[in-house]
Amino acid sequence: MEVFFYVLPGIFVVVGVLGLVRTLRRSSEISRAWRHGRTAEARCLRSYTTTGGGGGDTSVTTTLHHVFEFATAEGRTVRIDERNGRSTVVEGDFVTVYYLPEKPEKATAQPPAQGKLAAGTGCMVAFFAVFIGFALVFMGVAHFIFSAADGIVP
Length: 154
Prior knowledge:
Elements: H1 4-36, E1 38-53, E2 60-71, E3 77-83, E4 94-100, E5 103-108, H2 114-152
Antiparallel strand pairs: 1-2, 1-4, 2-3, 4-5
């Protein structure tokens, strides 16, 4: 029974760390593409939305996606699917994409906004820190309770 109080929060910690790493990695990729990458003109091939949630009393979340296609400076054609893009971009529009020559498939069509990126990344880091911290505190309290109970119950 005690294992449950260690394994489940341990899974939460692992998920939190993975989310934190993914957030920091994507933020770094976008920032580097804006500062040190190349630009290309991309055409929006498709725009679509995905929904999540909505079961029972939960709210529905809608995510806007765009599929862009562009040619790198080397002539390679790349297609990307970007989430949370600008709602004013529709199929057939041309936008500027920012990419690193070694990773053009990680391109972004979001215009440079370092402050907005830093604020969003900071909020996600804070969320994951609280998430991980809660799981660790839960594990610590469970350990303390089980240790105290071992001394009382024969």
